[in-house]
Amino acid sequence: MKNIKMRLITWIGLLVVCLLPIPARATTNLLANGDFESEPNWGNGVSQDGGYTALTGSQIPGWTIEPSHAVTIHISSGPYLVISNSFSANTDGEGYNGHNANFYQNFGTTADVSYTLDFDWQSWGYDTAPTANPLKISVTDTVTSNALFVGFYYYDGNAPHPVHHVTTNFFGTGSALRLRIEESPESGYNDNTFVVDNFSVVAGLPTLRITVPAPSQAALSWPTNADGFALVTTFSLPASSWNAVTNVPVVLGSSYSVTVPATNAQQYFRLYHQ
User: Fold this and answer.
1) Alpha carbon of 149 to those of 89, 100, 191, 204, 258: distances in Å?
2) Residue 82: pLDDT above 70?
């Protein structure tokens, strides 16, 4: 039987099976140090003054900086731009070794689960001529190298420069994904053009699917994340009560399904975080 992605209503002959929206649940940032606030190596980079440090290798917790590249970290007590809190990253990397910043972080995903990427960026243009080249933010699959998101952002002219907040969504692949921050193509000099901050990736709602294995049956399945979900049902709305269909322990990377009798002409299902 053909698999049908469900979002609102599926007709099965004369049977109506409704999958109601999943209520919002608490989310956790899958990135470590996405706001750059953990800086144990600040002041010990390849170059520094009282307001910045250019860090290399694994000197920024949670992030990997490509060889021969540096990432400049500004501190709010200094004279240089910080978007929020104590630290932000300047992507020119001081033009270290003729390169700009190029750094990344991997995070695990579950297939068919939606994820939301948020981050802030701001034009700067301090002291030196800003580059006309863009800031590039991307998310790629580490196994297939397929790009799930690629964003290019350009210097936005004379000050005052607004903080740009970017939100985008993509679906997990079941493999580790890589968030990369870079200037591409590189200017290769200390261009002082872009400052970035507040990166987060959070898991959203799983995709619900329904199949019809036999008359008067409904088979519901959903991918799982590292949380538990409960499936409940009712025969009318507004519902005076919801009856539990099943409660399952959720294991990262697994998919759960349940086949339920659906003998009424109309039936509603809801999957929610326990």
Assistant:
1) 21, 21, 25, 16, 33
2) yes
Q: Which of 29-33, 97-101, 105-109, 248-252 has the lowest mean pLDDT?
A: 248-252
What are the structural domain ranges in the chain?
Answer: 4-22+208-273, 47-205
Q: Check whether the bond before 185 is cis (ω within 30° of 0).
A: yes
Supply the pLDDT for residue 4. Answer: 33
- For 4-22+208-273, CATH gives 2.60.40
Superfamily of domain 47-205: Galactose-binding domain-like (2.60.120.260)
pTM (predicted TM-score): 0.73
pLDDT at residue 274, rounded to an integer: 55
Q: Given this model, what pLDDT does residue 52 score?
A: 98
159: which 2 tokens?
A: 């000050």
Check whether 138 has a pLDDT greater than 90.
yes
More confident residue, 21 or 174: 174
